[in-house]
Amino acid sequence: CQILNHIRTDDDYGSSVDTWTDGSKFKAAIIKNSSTEAVIAERQGVNEIYTVVTPKTFPLDYHDVFKRLSDQQIFRVTGKTKDSEAPAASSVAIAKVTAEKWVLPSD
Questions:
Q1: For residue range 44-63, what is the model confidence (pLDDT) as tens digits?
Q2: pTM of structure
Q3: CA-CA distance, 58 to 95, in Å (whole number)?
Q4: Residue 74: CB partners within 8 Å, gap ≥ 6?
């Protein structure tokens, strides 16, 4: 996966332009939430929800945006890894966060 950095610059007309640039690469396991509640929510228009597992050394934060390099799918983080990371005493140094499928806003 790869983080997408958001840059907002002022234009000459009193508005702004959003630009997304490639940032750091990281490894992650991305698993779709297929619970009954998630399926019902999707049918009602809620974006698909995923669990993203990353190394604790690469924590994701609320509203971070990243893409899966294998298919270029964009995701936006909807939680914080600090809320769901393995304890310091654990031999498994992972953290998990929720994310949704997302589309980069266009101008």
A1: 878 889 999 999 888 899 99
A2: 0.83
A3: 9
A4: 4, 65, 66, 67, 101, 102, 103, 104
